[in-house]
Amino acid sequence: MIKKIIAGTLIGTMTLFALPNNELKLMLVAKAAEKKALILSNMKLQDDIKENFGTLYDEYQVELVELRMNELTLIANYAKNYKNMTDENANKLMVKWMTVEEAEIELKKEYVSKFTKIMPSVDVVRYFQMENRIQLLREIKTASQIPLANPTINREDKEQ
Fold first, then answer.
1. Alpha-carbon distances, residue 145 vs 7, 14, 107, 138 (angstroms)
2. Cα separation of 133 and 127, whole Å?
3. Nearest to 2 by CA among 97, 85, 79
4. What's the per-residue H, E or C state across the chain?
5. Is residue 144 in a domain?
6. Whole-number Å distance between alpha carbons of 81 and 127
7. Is residue 7 part of a domain?
8. Crossing angle for the helix pair 87-118 and 121-145, to the nearest 10 degrees
9. Is residue 156 part of a domain?
């Protein structure tokens, strides 16, 4: 099950890097190209802005994928411990989760600033709306596959 979660998360976040040499990479590249085509077709940008946007988009996606890889590591670590979650593991998980979330917010802030230098703010809002929708769909799919944590000790036993 965790392999499906990781594959689904990767598919939703990978960008076009190089010619793939296996089926998974080919699928990831195809999804990234599909996402970029979807974004570009819905942005309705002028040619000069579209070219600059495409370059900055690719740069942003590379950094976003790095963050998604951190998220995958977090999910993989969770998968090892969710059946018998201890407070210690839960605390470590929450700290790492917040670190990943904060890094994504900082990345968005950085790129909002970069995108507003090459195109009107209304287009920047439109782009990040699309990114957020794609992200939400990915998160819903991922969350639906991740089971809730189970404490290692029965709460009633701990209270006594």
1. 12, 20, 27, 11
2. 10
3. 79
4. CHHHHHHHHHHHHCCCCCCCCCHHHHHHHHHHHHHHHHHHHHHCCCHHHHHHHHHHHHHHHHHHHHHHHHHHHHHHHHHHHHHHECHHHHHHHHHHHHHHHHHHHHHHHHHHHHHHHHCCHHHHHHHHHHHHHHHHHHHHHHHHHCCCCCECCCHHHHHC
5. yes
6. 37
7. yes
8. 160
9. no
Alpha-carbon Rg for the chain, nearest whole angstrom, is: 19
Structural domain includes residue 29 = yes
Backbone φ, ψ for residue 137 (5° rounding): -60, -40
Distance CA 47, CA 119 (A): 12
What would the pLDDT profile of 86-137 be if each residue is shown by its tens digit?
888 889 989 999 999 999 999 999 999 999 999 999 999 999 999 999 999 9
> Domain span at residue 141?
2-148
Which amino acid, 59?
Answer: E
Residue 82 has a pLDDT of: 83
Report how many domains make up the chain.
1
Residue entry with tokens 């998968």: 79
Give this prediction's pTM: 0.74
